TrEMBL record:
Alphabetized UniProt keyword annotations: Cytoplasm, Hydrolase, Protease, Thiol protease
Organism: Lasius platythorax
UniProt cross-references to PANTHER family, sorted A to Z: PROTEASE FAMILY C15 PYROGLUTAMYL-PEPTIDASE I-RELATED, PYROGLUTAMYL-PEPTIDASE I
Source taxon at top rank: Eukaryota
Stated family: Belongs to the peptidase C15 family.
One GO biological process term: proteolysis
One Pfam family hit: Peptidase_C15
Keyword Mitochondrion: no
Protein name listed in UniProt: Pyroglutamyl-peptidase 1
InterPro entries: Peptidase_C15, Peptidase_C15-like, Peptidase_C15-like_sf
GO CC annotations, alphabetized: cytosol
Gene Ontology molecular-function annotations: pyroglutamyl-peptidase activity
């Protein structure tokens, strides 16, 4: 890229855990990167993708570092959910209650963590409606959720919301039996298009 990008978007997916030996979230993010390069629609915007280990300690130390390093205009975290039937846009995240072991067989130390809920500052209802308006084009529907699952998905969402809630979004994607990686990537691309256009006209 010759000129400096106008802004930077950071998109993360998760690595393997439990039965998800190949994680649908990271596979979709990799496809999203290809779509981004091929489309050339936003040549002035840099898309950075990152695979995140399903580890509380990694997330708590590295997510703030990624914010500092890239100073992103938008952060989109993506995770897989066996319950998801469509792109599931999460509305908020909680600070505690993470008692399910990660890939390191560990949970976060919550002895000094107060119970807190952080909401995304993005208009998720309008975003969801927009995705559903375009669903024939990319074959992805969307819905809203108020329970991100108290595992690494909600944990990473909370960490980023604590940095900058107005720039942070989390989307749960279905497993491969519901949507292909390409199909999911098209839906995620549509989400980013909406967020970018809102930025440009705000």
């Amino acid at each position: 890229m010759g000129a400096d990008p106008e802004c930077t978007i950071l998109v993360t997916g998760f690595g393997p855990f439990d039965k998800h030996v190949v994680n649908a979230s990271w596979e979709a993010v990799k496809e999203l990167q290809k779509l981004w390069i091929d489309s050339k629609e936003f040549s002035d915007i840099e898309l950075i993708t990152k695979e995140i280990p399903v580890s509380y300690s990694y997330v708590s130390t590295q997510i703030p570092q990624l914010w500092k390093k890239h100073n992103p205009t938008i952060v989109l975290h993506v995770g897989v959910s066996h319950k998801a039937e469509s792109l599931t846009i999460e509305c908020h995240a909680r600070s505690n209650g993470y008692d399910r072991f990660d890939v390191d067989k560990k949970c976060p130390n919550e002895t000094s963590i107060e119970c807190n809920v952080l909401k995304t500052g993005i208009d998720v209802k309008e975003l969801c409606d927009n995705v559903n308006k375009n669903c024939e084009k990319h074959e992805c529907g969307a819905c809203l959720s108020y329970d991100a699952g108290r595992y690494l998905c909600e944990y990473i969402f909370y960490q980023s919301l604590a940095v900058e809630s107005t720039k942070t979004l989390f989307v749960h994607v279905p497993d491969f039996d519901k949507y292909s990686s390409t199909q999911t990537a098209k839906g995620l691309y549509d989400i980013l298009c909406y967020l970018i256009r809102n930025l440009k006209y705000s």
